[in-house]
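REVIEWER CHECKLIST
Item 1: Sequence provided? yes
Item 2: Single chain? yes
Item 3: Sequence as submitted:
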Amino acid sequence: MKNKILFFVLIFFLSFCFLVLFKSLDSSSIYVPEKSEERELPEFVSTELFLNEEITSNEIFSGNEFYILNIWASWCAPCREEHPQLMELSKNPSLKIIGLNYKDDPKRAKKFLKELGNPFSITVIDKKGIIAIEFGGYGIPETFVINKDKKIIKTYIGNLTDDSIKQINSLLK
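Item 4: Structure as written out by the authors:
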């Protein structure tokens, strides 16, 4: 009799564990914050990676053109994967690509760009990650498309793909 009760308790416990596991697999644990389109650009002051001079967001986004702001780091594997797409985008004369080097060693960042090519018109340093947070970023790589009115019109979370490049090019028309 005691063995039967123990058996049913064990079956109940295992069924409960299976049910909890099954339910947790059904729901996504990936958090994607809500991002409203047409957001204002945050103002910031940073250091340019190669010149080691202070630069403001107003100086960076001073022209009347489309911009891409790409948050990246030399230690980021997906950043390395998306680099060919950024190099492809850099060929577009109506687009200015800004690199935001996130929590990285400047020497490693320079080496990364020397090895893979530099698609950025300007690269600024975000040593503490504060600028990325002000843009609404929460991971890297992350890419923001900024229109001629200096508003963020599109955000790409994760590495850029060929489809992303097509979408960006269609936004520029």
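Item 5: Key structural point noted by reviewer: The mean pLDDT is 88.
Item 6: Recommendation: ____
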